[in-house]
Amino acid sequence: MSQQATAIARANIALAKYWGKSDVGLNLPAVSSISLTLEPMRTETTVTFDAKLASDEVILNGKPAEGKAKSRAIKVLDQVRALAESGHKARVESANNFPTASGLASSASGFAALVAASWTAAGLKRDDVRWSAMSRQASASAARSIYGGFVELPKGVPGDAALAAREVAPPSHWDVRIVVAVANEGAKDVGSTEGMTLSEQTSPYYRAWVECSDALVEEVRAGIMARDLTKVGEAMEQSTLAMHACMMASRPGLIYLQPATLAALATVKRLRKEGIEVYATMDAGPHVKALCHAEDAERVAAALADTQLVLRTLVAHPGEGLEIRT
Ligand code: DP6
């Protein structure tokens, strides 16, 4: 007998950034973060528990996963098996419709979908708070992809295994756009988990980053509630650049920005000068994600697509939280 479920999760982009952990074992963030869940950047994951399988199989975008990607997925399956008191091995098939492991937060939608699909396949009842907490243990940004719209993951007090994200406002609250300027399709050099540990241990700006983040999170949250793009955008840019300053001052330096990143940032600045409200953010990768009003998205996308070294653009809008396909 086999038990199967399919879940769809969307990627998310942090408007107030997470970088650093207060408890590595439980994967608790040292700073609070606020994100926007993105449609149509989706991961679709099917989990099948099958008594006939001798070991877990993990297929990512059509290829068998190896190493860390596989072991992190098996850790989630083990947690779900312990809860469901099941010993069956599983087949996991997961696919993204956007570039994997390049700073577009595929681990966020990936782990959110994996937690929800394996939980449901094991016959457990839907529980968004526990899904978020379990996703957070796999990858903290994944906790935010359980919910739609604007989502906050509070910083964690060491030992708080149950820490979960929560909705700040639903997708219908504010019709903004994120225009992604794709700078490079390859995988990044240093993953977020490793990069954060390095920053914490070696960056002289790590303390300053943690200290300035509280005020920026407050500003982003207040700006979202007031639908004030200037307020959110300015705080988001400072959160992004403070995080990158902390990354860059690590030893060895973590430089995720590439020539295409800087070119796209110059375009965003020029558009602002021309009177378009648009602000930029970057994660642990070279892509620039530009936040703007819905009515300006086409012009922003055209200007970014025209920018030297930018490969292509994608436009996203506020998306829903986790969906189970029945
Ligand atoms: C720069 O959630 O990938 O994208 O918890 O170690 O898996 P782990 O890290 P991850 O970090 C994301 C960092 C970021 C900023 C953000 O999304 O808030």
Features:
326 residues; binds ligand DP6; two-stranded antiparallel ribbon; 8 helices; alpha+beta; 12-stranded mixed β-sheet
Can you offer a commentary on this structure?
Helix content is 37%, strand content 27%. The protein is built from eight helices and 14 strands. It has helices spanning 67-84, 106-121, 128-138, 192-202, 206-225, 229-248, 259-273, 297-305; strands at 2-16, 21-23, 28-29, 33-50, 57-60, 63-64, 89-96, 150-153, 166-169, 176-182, 278-281, 288-293, 312-318, 323-325. The longest helix has 20 residues, at 206-225. The chain starts with a strand and ends with a strand. Ligand DP6 is lined by residues 14, 17-19, 27, 33, 105, 107, 139-141, 192-193, 196, 283-284.
Please outline what is shown here.
The chain has helices at 67-84, 106-121, 128-138, 192-202, 206-225, 229-248, 259-273, 297-305, and strands at 2-16, 21-23, 28-29, 33-50, 57-60, 63-64, 89-96, 150-153, 166-169, 176-182, 278-281, 288-293, 312-318, 323-325. The chain is built from 8 helices and 14 strands.
